[in-house]
Design brief:
Number of helices of chain A: 13
Mean pLDDT of chain C: 88
Mean pLDDT of chain A: 86
Order of helices and strands of chain A: HHHEEEEEEEEHEHHHHHHHHH
Low-confidence stretches of chain C: none
Number of helices of chain C: 12
Strand order of the largest sheet of chain A: 6-5-1-9-7-8
CATH class of the largest domain in chain C: Mainly Alpha
Largest sheet of chain A: 6 strands, antiparallel
CATH class of the largest domain in chain A: Mainly Alpha
Strand order of the largest sheet of chain C: 1-2
CATH superfamily of the largest domain in chain C: MetI-like
Shape of chain C: flat
Oligomer: heterotrimer
Shape of chain A: elongated
Low-confidence stretches of chain A: none
Structural class of chain A: alpha+beta
Largest sheet of chain C: 2 strands, antiparallel
CATH architecture of the largest domain in chain C: Orthogonal Bundle
CATH superfamily of the largest domain in chain A: MetI-like
CATH topology of the largest domain in chain C: MetI-like fold
Radius of gyration of chain A: 30 Å
Helix content of chain A: 55-70%
Largest interface: A-C, 86 and 81 residues
Strand content of chain A: 5-15%
Chains: A alpha+beta, B alpha/beta, C mainly alpha
Distance between the termini of chain A: 55 Å
Radius of gyration of chain C: 27 Å
Number of strands of chain A: 9
Structural class of chain C: mainly alpha
CATH architecture of the largest domain in chain A: Orthogonal Bundle
Strand content of chain C: under 5%
Number of domains of chain A: 3
Chain lengths: 408, 257, 328
C-alpha cells in the first residue's frame, strides 16, 4: 500500500506540473502579443500619427519669397546638413524599400517652406493652394533661381543643401510628403461607434423589454427568441455579405450613395451588435426584483409607466455593460466592414462615402507586398488599450452590481 | 367601533371562485367589507387569504392562468367590468406588501411616483402631497429633513411606513395590506399597528395576517379562511370570544395552524 | 389642495391606456424586427449565393471582347480542386472543393491542439490553482477573448510566420515567408483557446462538490479526482464549448487570410505549405473585383453557412449520443 501511495503521489505531482505548464500558455500568448505590439508600434503612437493624413502626397511646390537667415534653435547632429537661407536640414537616408532618398530632418519653426505653394493643385479661382512641407518629406529634385541651378536626389543631401544656401528662390521642388497618419480612420471609427449604437441600442433594449416584461410562454414568443439566439452563431463575414447585398443597394436607392459607405457599415454593425445588447439588457432586467414592478402596478401605474419609471432606470448598468462590450466589438470588426463598406482609407471622411475604421485600416496596410508592421502595431496598441480599458470598466461594473445586490 | 359609523359596504363580493388553471384556490366566498373599518383575514398558510385580497385590486390579473368568477362590486360597480379601468381601481384600492418594496429612488420621488404617473407635475402640489402623506403615515417627523435621500437607507419599519405613505398619496378609499408586519421587528410592528388604527378614520383597511393576536388587537371585523373557503366572518370580538364554527374555535385556540 | 383622484378622469385614463398600447406595440415590433434579421440573412445569402448557378454573366476576354459566360456548374463548384480555371472575368469555372477540405483540415488540427490546452487551463483556474493565481489567469483569458481577430492577424504575420519559417528552416524546408497551414492552425489555436477555456471553466466549476468529496473519500488523489471524476462530469459542458470554438474557427476570416497564403488550388496536408479556407477565398482580392468574381463570394458564403450548420448539427448529435451513453 505504501509503495502504491508513493506512486500515486508522484503521478499527482507530474499531473499537476503539466496542468500548470499548459495552463500558463495563455499567459505566454498574451505577453507575446503585448510585447510584440508594443515594441513594434509604440514609437508610432503619437499625436502626429493620430491626426495626420494617411495618404502620401507626391507633388511639386515652389516659393518666390522667404529666403533669409534662419538660425537653428538647437544643435543639429552631423548627419543633418542645414541651410540657413531657408531653414531646412537635409539628411541622407533610405525609404521603406531600401532605396536612398533625401529627407527633411529638421525644419526651422519660421521656415518659409512651411507655407509653400502647390504647383499641381489650385483652388476655384486658380490660385495655388498652400501646402505644408513636413518633417520626413522626401525631396527628389530641386530647381532654383528660375531654372538656373539644380540639385538631384543622386547628388546627396550635402550638395542639395549647398544649392539651397545659394538660392534666392525655389522654382520647383519635387516632394513626397509622407502620410502614414490615421486621422481619417480615427474619425470613421468614432462615427461608426456612434451611429451603430444609435441604431442598435433602442432596438435591442426594446426587444429585451418585450422578451422579459411582456412575452408570455406562447409559441410565437419562443419562435422569436430562438431566431434571435441564432443571430449569435453567424460569423461576422456573413453579416458583411448581408451589408453588401442589402444595405448598400438600399442606401444607393434611397440616399444616392455610390456603393459602400460609413452608413452601410453602421447598419451592418448594428445587426451584429443586436444579440449582445439584447442579452445584456435581458440579464439586467431579470435581476430587478418583481416586488418593484408589483409595487408600481399597485399604485395605479400601467406596465409601460412601470417599465420606464422603475425598471429601466435600474437596468441601466447592465445595458451600459452591453454598450461597452459593443464598442469593443465595433472597434475590432474587420471582415464584415470590408464587405459592407469597402477597404479604402480616406483622409476626409464623409458618411455617404467609403472609409475605413481602425481595424480595416490595419487590414489595408498589411495587405500587399510591403506590410506596414509598425503602423499596424501602433493602431493595434490603440485598439488594445481601448478594449482592455473597456474590459476593466465592465468588470468594475459587475463588481459594484454584486455589492449593491447584497446590500439591499 | 362607534355606533355613529355608518356600516356601509365598500366591497360586496358574492359567489367568488378563483382558479389557477384547474386548481380551485377560492371556493364560493361571500363577503361584505364596510367603510372605515379594519377587516382582518386570518387562517393557516395556504388557505387563500393572500389570494383573495388580491381580487380586490385585480392584482390577480397579472397571473395568466388565474380566473375569477362571481360578483365583485366596488362602490356598487362591477370591478371586473371591461369599462371599469383597472388603473382607476388600483388608484382607489391601494396595496402594501409583506416585504417593504420602496423604489430605489429618493423618499420624495417614491411618494410622488403615483401622482406623477397620473399627470401631476406642479412642484408645489407634489410637495404638499408628499408632506401630507408622510404625516398621515406617521413618518414625516423622521424623514422631513432628508426627503431627497434614497429610500433604501431607511430601516425596515420606516420603509414599510413609506410604502403606506406612497399608497396614501393616491388618496385611495381602501388600503389592502398583505401581512405588512411579518418582516418587521416588534417595535416597528407596534408602530404600524398604531398607524392602522389611526388610518381607519380616513380609509378602509383590509389586512391579511397570520398573527391572530394582531387581528384581535386592531381589527373591527375578522374573516377566517380555510382551504379556500370562508369559514366564518363576524365582529372581531365575537370571532375571538364566541366563534360560531367549530373549525374557527380550533384555529383560534391553536389546535392547528 | 388639488385632489389626486381628480386627475383620474376617463379622459386621462384613455390617454394613458393609448400610450401603453402604443408602447407595447413598439416593443413587439422591434422584437419581430430583431428576429427577422436571421431570416433575412439566410434568404439573401441563399439568393445571391445561388445566383451564379443560374445566371449567365457578362465576361471580358482579351481575345474576343465581351463573352457570355456559362452559369457556374454547382457540381464542379463544389468538387473542383482549383479556385478558377481560366482567366479572371472571362471564366465561370470556379471551384471550392479544395477550400472546403482545407478549412476542415485546419479546423480539425487547431481543435486537436486547443482542446487539451483549454481544458487543462480551465481545470487549473477552476480547481487547481490558488485563488489569486486563478483570478489572474481568468483575467488573462478574458483579455485574450476580447482581442479582435485583425490583431491576431498582425501577430500572425509578425511573429507566427517567422517562427514557422525558422522551424521549417531547421528541416531545410523553404516556406512562403512562413505563410502556411501551420501558421493558420497556430493562429486559430490562439483565437479559439479563450472561448473553449471560458466555457470549460464554467462547466468544471459547476461540478457538484459531493462528487468530488466522494472521490477523495475513496482515497483518490486530487489530480486523479480531477481527471477521472470532474472532467467526466463536466464533459457535456466542455463539449458545448468545443462546438462554440469550432464554430468560431470555421467563421474566422481576416486573421486566417493574412497567414494562410491563400493557396489557389490543392488540398494541403503538409503543414508547411500554403493553404486557404472558405473565408480567406472570400476575402482575397475583394478590393478589385466585380461581376461574377464578386458574386461568387456569396456562393462561397452560402457553402460556408451550410458547412457550419452541418458541423453544428452533427457535433450536437454526437454530444447527445455520448451524453446518453452515460445516463444509465
Amino acid at each position: 500500500m505504501k509503495a502504491n501511495m508513493k506512486l500515486k503521489n508522484r503521478y499527482d505531482k507530474i499531473a499537476s506540473t503539466s496542468v500548470y505548464t499548459l495552463g500558463f500558455i495563455g499567459v505566454i500568448i498574451l505577453s507575446m502579443i503585448i510585447f510584440y505590439v508594443t515594441t513594434t508600434g509604440l514609437s508610432l503612437v503619437s499625436w502626429d500619427t493620430i491626426t495626420g493624413d494617411s495618404a502620401t502626397i507626391n507633388t511639386n511646390v515652389y516659393l518666390d519669397t522667404g529666403a533669409g537667415n534662419y538660425m537653428p534653435d538647437e544643435i543639429l547632429p552631423e548627419e543633418i546638413f542645414y541651410s540657413e537661407t531657408w531653414g531646412i536640414g537635409l539628411i541622407d537616408t533610405r525609404d521603406r524599400e531600401g532605396h536612398p532618398i533625401i529627407e527633411i530632418a529638421y525644419l526651422h519653426p519660421e521656415s518659409p517652406l512651411l507655407t509653400s505653394l502647390d504647383k499641381n493643385n489650385t483652388d476655384e479661382e486658380g490660385n495655388p493652394i498652400e501646402i505644408e512641407i513636413k518633417l520626413d518629406t522626401a525631396i527628389e529634385k530641386a530647381i532654383f533661381n528660375n531654372f538656373t541651378s539644380f540639385a538631384f536626389l543622386t547628388d546627396g543631401a550635402e550638395v542639395m543643401r549647398d544649392q539651397f544656401e545659394q538660392a534666392t528662390s525655389i522654382s520647383d521642388l519635387t516632394v513626397q510628403i509622407v502620410g502614414g497618419g490615421i486621422r481619417g480612420s480615427v474619425i470613421t471609427t468614432f462615427w461608426m461607434i456612434g451611429l451603430t449604437l444609435i441604431l442598435s441600442v433602442p432596438v435591442g433594449v426594446s426587444t429585451a423589454i418585450y422578451f422579459n416584461e411582456f412575452a408570455k410562454r406562447t409559441r410565437f414568443s419562443s419562435i422569436i427568441r430562438n431566431l434571435v439566439d441564432m443571430l449569435t452563431g453567424v460569423p461576422s463575414i456573413i453579416y458583411g455579405l448581408l451589408g453588401a447585398a442589402v444595405f448598400i443597394p438600399l442606401l444607393n436607392s434611397t440616399i444616392g450613395t455610390g456603393g459602400g459607405s460609413v452608413l452601410s457599415g453602421a447598419l451592418t454593425m448594428a445587426v451584429i451588435l443586436l444579440p449582445t445588447i439584447i442579452k445584456s439588457t435581458e440579464e439586467a432586467l431579470k435581476i430587478i426584483p418583481d416586488d418593484l414592478r408589483k409595487g408600481s402596478l399597485a399604485l395605479g401605474a400601467n406596465q409601460t409607466q412601470t417599465i420606464f419609471n422603475v425598471v429601466l432606470p435600474n437596468a441601466t448598468p447592465g445595458i451600459l455593460t452591453g454598450v461597452l462590450l459593443g464598442i469593443g466589438r465595433i472597434m475590432g470588426e474587420s471582415a464584415a466592414l470590408i464587405f459592407a463598406v469597402g477597404a479604402v482609407i480616406k483622409d476626409s471622411v464623409f458618411l455617404t462615402e467609403r472609409s475605413s475604421t481602425l481595424a480595416v485600416h490595419i487590414w489595408v496596410i498589411m495587405g500587399g507586398e510591403a506590410p506596414n508592421f509598425e503602423l499596424a502595431a501602433a493602431i493595434a496598441i490603440i485598439i488594445l488599450v481601448v478594449v482592455f480599458v473597456i474590459n476593466f470598466i465592465v468588470k468594475i461594473f459587475a463588481h459594484q452590481l454584486q455589492k449593491n445586490m447584497n446590500w439591499s | 367601533m362607534s355606533e355613529q359609523t355608518l356600516k356601509k359596504p365598500v366591497f360586496q363580493l358574492n359567489n367568488i371562485d378563483l382558479f389557477y388553471g384547474d386548481f380551485q384556490a377560492i371556493k364560493n366566498v361571500n363577503m361584505t367589507i364596510n367603510y372605515h373599518e379594519v377587516t382582518a383575514f386570518i387562517g393557516p398558510s395556504g388557505c387563500g387569504k393572500s389570494t383573495f385580497i388580491r381580487i380586490l385590486n385585480r392584482m390577480n390579473d397579472l397571473i395568466p392562468s388565474c380566473k375569477v368568477t362571481g360578483s365583485i362590486l366596488y362602490e356598487n360597480q362591477d370591478a371586473y367590468d371591461k369599462n371599469f379601468d383597472v388603473i382607476e381601481l388600483r388608484s382607489k384600492v391601494g396595496m402594501v406588501f409583506q416585504k417593504p418594496n420602496p423604489f430605489p429612488m429618493s423618499i420624495y420621488d417614491n411618494i410622488a411616483y403615483g401622482p406623477r404617473c397620473q399627470g401631476i407635475k406642479d412642484k408645489k402640489v407634489l410637495d404638499e402631497i408628499v408632506e401630507n402623506s408622510l404625516k398621515k403615515a406617521a413618518l414625516w417627523d423622521e424623514v422631513s429633513d432628508r426627503l431627497k435621500k434614497s429610500a433604501m437607507g431607511l430601516s425596515g419599519g420606516q420603509q414599510q411606513r413609506l410604502c403606506i405613505a406612497r399608497t396614501i398619496a393616491m388618496e385611495p378609499e381602501v388600503i389592502l395590506m398583505d401581512e405588512p408586519t411579518s418582516a418587521l421587528d416588534p417595535i416597528a410592528t407596534q408602530k404600524i399597528e398604531d398607524l392602522i388604527v389611526e388610518l381607519k378614520q380616513d380609509y378602509t383597511i383590509v389586512i391579511v395576517t397570520h398573527n391572530m393576536q394582531q387581528a384581535a388587537r386592531i381589527s373591527d371585523k375578522t374573516a377566517f379562511f380555510l382551504l379556500g373557503e370562508l369559514i366564518e366572518m363576524d365582529d372581531t370580538n365575537k370571532i375571538f370570544n364566541h366563534p360560531k364554527n367549530e373549525k374557527t374555535e380550533q384555529y383560534i385556540t391553536g389546535r392547528f395552524g | 389642495m388639488l385632489s389626486v383622484q381628480s386627475y383620474i378622469t376617463p379622459k386621462n385614463i384613455k390617454k394613458k391606456n393609448r400610450g401603453d398600447l402604443i408602447a407595447r406595440n413598439i416593443f413587439r415590433a422591434t422584437s419581430i424586427l430583431s428576429a427577422s434579421f436571421v431570416v433575412i440573412v439566410i434568404i439573401i445569402i441563399a439568393i445571391r449565393g445561388l445566383n451564379p448557378f443560374f445566371t449567365s454573366y457578362e465576361g471580358f476576354n482579351n481575345v474576343t471582347g465581351i463573352v457570355y459566360l456559362e452559369p457556374v456548374n454547382p457540381v464542379t463548384f463544389l468538387l473542383n480542386n482549383q479556385w478558377l480555371q481560366g482567366p479572371v472575368g472571362a471564366s465561370s469555372d470556379y471551384g471550392i472543393g479544395f477550400a472546403i477540405l482545407n478549412t476542415i483540415i485546419a479546423v480539425i488540427m487547431s481543435t486537436f491542439i486547443t482542446v487539451p490546452v483549454a481544458v487543462l487551463t480551465a481545470l487549473l483556474i477552476a480547481k487547481v490553482a490558488p485563488k489569486r493565481i486563478a483570478a489572474f489567469l481568468r483575467t488573462v483569458v478574458e483579455l485574450l477573448a476580447s482581442i479582435p481577430s485583425i490583431i491576431y492577424g498582425v501577430i500572425g504575420l509578425g511573429v507566427i510566420t517567422n517562427i514557422v519559417s525558422w522551424f521549417a528552416g531547421l528541416f531545410g524546408v523553404q516556406t512562403a515567408a512562413g505563410l502556411s497551414l501551420m501558421s493558420t492552425v497556430l493562429v486559430l489555436f490562439m483565437m479559439t483557446l479563450p472561448t473553449i477555456t471560458a466555457v470549460a471553466e464554467t462547466s468544471i466549476r459547476s461540478v457538484k462538490k459531493d462528487i468530488i468529496e466522494g472521490s477523495l473519500a475513496l482515497s483518490a488523489t486530487p489530480m486523479q479526482t480531477y481527471f477521472k471524476v470532474v472532467l467526466t462530469s463536466a464533459k457535456s459542458g466542455i463539449f458545448a464549448g468545443i462546438i462554440l470554438g469550432v464554430g468560431r474557427a470555421l467563421g474566422e476570416a481576416t486573421a486566417v487570410s493574412m497567414v494562410s497564403g491563400n493557396s489557389f488550388s490543392g488540398v494541403t496536408f503538409n503543414v508547411l505549405e500554403t493553404t486557404s479556407t472558405l473565408t480567406s477565398r472570400m476575402l482575397l482580392g475583394i478590393k478589385e473585383t466585380s461581376g461574377i468574381d464578386y458574386d461568387i463570394r456569396f456562393s462561397v458564403g452560402l457553402v460556408l453557412m451550410i458547412v457550419i450548420l452541418v458541423t453544428n448539427v452533427s457535433l450536437k448529435a454526437v454530444m447527445k449520443k455520448v451524453g446518453n451513453l452515460d445516463e444509465s
